[in-house]
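Dear colleagues,

As part of the handover before I leave the project, I'm documenting each prediction I ran so the next person doesn't have to rerun anything. This entry is a single chain, and its sequence is reproduced below.
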Amino acid sequence: RAAHEKEGIEFNEQEVDVCTEVKFSVIRVALPLGILFQENEAGCWVARIFASGNAARAAGDDVQVGDQLASIDGKSAIRKTTEEISVMISGGGVKKDVELTFLRYIGPLRPAPGTAGIPVPEERNYPPRTPSPQKSINQ
């Protein structure tokens, strides 16, 4: 969904094939990260990567805006708030680095009907069909 949100498109809720449409990235990065996270219903996603931050220097292309945060040091970050992940990342101020796992949707954009110029399907009430008279081929 974050990839769709980044493009301003509402996701159409189709199932995603995790084997072919999702890329997993695991990075170890020193604190402070230099990543701004935003929340969605799945948890937190990368809204900005600061060029001067440790994540930009350490991760290269492994982390991009729109990536969904999946875990922190092997613990699930799914459905966590930004406040909760901040606590998990800082580890009470005793950590020097952290392992982050990100998910990136690499499949096609799937706009929901009614968004991004995709029309909402109309409900049509067609009159009942009347059967056409049967003709015999052997006449």
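Strands lie at 22-30, 35-40, 43-49, 68-72, 75-76, 97-105. Residues 134-139 have pLDDT under 50 and may be disordered.

All the best with the project,
I.
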